[in-house]
Amino acid sequence: MTKHNIPAVLGVGNALIDVISVLKDDAVLEKFGLPRGSMTLVDADQSKIIYDTIYSEESELATGGSVANTMRSMANLGGNGGYMGKIGHDDLGTLFKSDFEKAGVKTHLFYSETSTGRVMGMVSPDSERTMATYLGAAAELVPAEFTPDIFEGYEYVYIEGYLVFNHDLIAACARGAKAAGVKIAIDLSSFNVVEANLDFLKDLIKNYVDIVFANEEEAKSFTGLEPEDALHEISKNCELTIVKVGKEGSMIKRGDELVKVGVIPAKALDTTGAGDAYSAGFFYGLTNGYSLDVCGKIAALVSGKVVEVMGPNLPDTQWPEIHKEIEKIVG
To answer: Tag placement on the chain: N or C end, fewer CB within 10 Å?
Structure first.
């Protein structure tokens, strides 16, 4: 099957550059008041102070943003995808655009006079990652940029939960996608995103969303329930629900069909991008028409590989091995 025959996914998210640094301990998190494992928005000045504190020769730069990570990994799997976001006229913006074009992702990038956004990714000794995000240009996507032609050629649009703070933007995307007959998927992204936008998210999922991705904390923030009960509750309002439960694997529900998928054994070095990689594997399976069980197993495979490297992107050398593993899963 060639890539052109595979249904395409349009990712919409914050176009960011990740600056990943390993911490000796959690003192830096305490100094800046950053809750372990959370994503905290910071302004340009605070971002620079954190950058100056944690950046070293060992730090790594990579294209980031949750849905951007997903689309990049999906392209490496051989999936068919595009990406919409906003960058600045600067070196980081140039890096973002060229990296995506090289990976084979169709770009729908808009420009801003503000600098390209960046994420300070701080990895604790136990591999937990905490993020301080300066959105920069990424935060300046506007509803008017969701023109009908943006959705042409896509079967799915995948929305990053971090964008949900901008209700008008998400509403415009959802309306545009529905009008174009495109299915809408959303990743809930972070428990604090869910808590801060609960009523809006409930309304959005009930009226527009077809596919929901959540981890156990996000699912609990959304429903007040433990993972499996949360899965059933969310699935009352959408076609397909995925709840990821860390080392326990994941649960997937579509209609009356319920699938539980384990994890692959992995030596966790850095959990950055694990959920994004899961979505990439899942969409790759879904757009290729595989069963939910196979979609979940491919998702678990890609996710398990990502936690073994620093940052959200696997080195190019690893993809051939992953393709062989997927052939075994698909049978």
So the answer is: C
